[in-house]
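Thread title: Can someone regenerate the structure for this chain?

I was given the following input by a collaborator and told the matching structure tokens would be attached. They weren't. Posting the sequence so someone can regenerate them.
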Amino acid sequence: MLQTWYHSHEPSVTPHFRPYVAEALPSSWYKSFEKAGKAGSMWSIWFIYYMHIEQVYSVYNNLAVYTGNRESCLCINRREAGLHYVTKGPENHCELLIEWKDEFVVFPGDTVRLRWDGSRVGNRL
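Best answer:
Regenerated them for you:
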């Protein structure tokens, strides 16, 4: 869904559209990237903008609570050569999770939600 939305809003399709979210610090970073001619390297602003307009949240895992292993993660930055790296970087951030448990996605009713500035969002349920 996000990719479909992006491809209908990307600069080659809508050159004057900007994915700014007023209260999000990454919007100012993106503006500085635009001035430097490097806006195309900041894919995250599109993800942030999409979450903002669709009123959805990004979930950050706390797998150590469930696995007891602080080295487990759901994804890693493989640091492939290209936009931000000249050569392939090491993949030493963490070990990818190898066993899935349904309890990883059972959220309590009082799940903490934060705004871009880190302040708590009230319960919208």
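The longest strand covers residues 72-73.
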